[in-house]
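Thread: quick sanity check before group meeting

JM: Hey all, I'm pulling together slides for Thursday and realized we never actually wrote out the predicted structure for the chain we discussed last week. Dropping the sequence here so it's in one place. If anyone has concerns about the input, flag it before I start.
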Amino acid sequence: MTESTDSVKDQVAAFRRSVTELRDEVGKVVVGNDAVIEAVLICMLAGSHALLEGVPGLGKTLLVRTMADALKLEFSRIQFTPDMMPADILGTTMIEDDPEGRGRRHFTFRKGPVFANIVLADEINRATPKTQSALLEAMQEHRVTIGNHTHTIAEPFFVLATQNPLESEGTYPLPEAQLDRFFFKLHVAFPSRSELHAILERTTGESRPEAKPVLDGARIQEMQRLVREVPVAQPVVDYAVRLIEATHPEHADASEEVRRYVNYGASPRGAQAVLLASKCYALFDGRFAPGIDDVKKAALPALRHRVLLNFEGEAEGIKTDPLIRTILERLPESAPPSVRGKSQKK
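JM (edit): ok, ran it. Output follows.
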């Protein structure tokens, strides 16, 4: 943010208005889950993807559909099944007759449903690893390679995937490389009693609320650029780095629990997700730079799927959320003098 103070204030104020407008529109249809809605918005504003996990019937698909309705973007839905093939997602090359009737034939690429701005990957863990991996290049590079040709996906591009954590029959766990492409992994909780009353009132009457488009692709991209421009103080960056290091069992600062139960800690993508999400949290509050509290707030959704447990951790039913919370409780907000000295020399 190198522009004048007044200009920056105007941009941040406009950013908050757009976020509030989008939240309100989604809230007309989706009851509760405010934290999940906010987290999905952060994934979109960071230019990345979200994995929503929850039992059937909690409104995961409805949330994604409503988000698409509130944005003037192209939307597609992929219902994953065990017999689905990569071509069903990416598209395929077909032989077609010459439209001018000359008797010649030519190859034409028919785009698959991944060529949209918002892609709902419903029950993504029902597809085989081969089909799941078809999304890897699209999620990371925003492009698809078929044969010798590369096809670019129009911006903005988001994959919002859902999965059921309970049912295991006919499902395939997402590989670590696939999980790492998701910016956040979000747990969709069961609604409270008051929220359940509101859901019944909205869904069992004569009319059902609908979301109207309030933001377009150009505005989303402007907001994404503003997120990238938010400055981060060096102590905050240092805290995020030490947080990632503390998830690795071989690191000197790793806790006893991490050494015992973790096979591999969070990747550099985890650090990127934590910092970008921290910037979004700051902008949501009207602040011009994130603090350590923003990093702590982003830690769970950004790291819970990136901290990989070992056999002992899996056997004892250890969950990553308590491990990350323990790290946050014990990790000092300021680095020891020896660590600060090393960072300055670098």
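AS: nice. The domain at 1-229 is CATH 3.40.50.300 (Rossmann fold). The CA atoms of residues 304 and 321 lie 6 Å apart.
JM: adding both to the slides.
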